[in-house]
Amino acid sequence: xxxxxxxxxxxxxxxxxxxxxxxxxxxxxxxxxxxxxxxxxxxxxxxxxxxxxxxxxxxxxxxxxxxxxxxxxxxxxxxxxxxxxxxxxxxxxxxxxxxxxxxxxxxxxxxxxxxxxxxxxxxxxxxxxxxxxxxxxxxxxxxxxxxxxxxxxxxxxxxxxxxxxxxxxxxxxxxxxxxxxxxxxxxxxxxxxxxxxxxxxxxxxxxxxxxxxxxxxxxxxxxxxxxxxxxxxxxxxxxxxxxxxxxxxxxxxxxxxxxxxxxxxxxxxxxxxxxxxxxxxxxxxxxxxxxxxxxxxxxxxxxxxxxxxxxxxxx
Length: 315
What we know:
The chain has 315 residues and is α+β, with helices and mostly antiparallel strands. It folds into two domains: 2-121, Dynein light chain 2a, cytoplasmic (Beta-Lactamase); 159-284, Dynein light chain 2a, cytoplasmic (Beta-Lactamase). It has eight helices and twelve strands.
């Protein structure tokens, strides 16, 4: 089966603009790969990183077909295999790849991969790979973009504050989006600090939080793989398209019926509203959360393998 899988992945790799292809189990274990620069360590890094996004996308959209992450330097494409929830495909491409051609040419190859897996694996998944503490640190060091530097971790999330005029301006923009695009299911802003701006009051807070989490996980993957800033996430199911755009200190999220507009036209319609939203949010007040030094030290310190801390609230 290995040769047939590799041949099928090479067929996808041969599509114009495609750079790397990795077949991955839903638990993060890579099965096969084809590409121009992936080493063994890079394959495992891509698999573990995109596995987190695959899991979040499945929580939000149980029947999602594909997820596309776009940046200035590349696109990262996650595709579910037809009728096979145990595997997915990760494809990295050049920034200006023809998406329509990619989707069309990948269709038969995805079906071929699903057939091979069902024929030879028959639902039996290989065991998860385990890592020692030293191996885990080696993997983390592999994500560094420069040699000879110590890795440091900081709390970077900020809290955004909106005055009345800014909140009204954002709601007006959301109303314009809602009225200009047919068959919208939901449109809202999910901002850092728990601020949610929408036309529906405080409903669907879980979806707002999950949209923010999906964008955040995607951004980390794009920065890890290509050291680039994420611009857009698009998740498509059988019935809906979920657009997530990066805005200052948050994300713009839109659910729309998949057949309401062509994808290219929808992007053109959204471009103006996203730019206006970014302009309004850029003028909002942003503050860093005040964290006690003791708590900051606890959050950022490395813990021992045997250490255990218990906390309680006194009555």
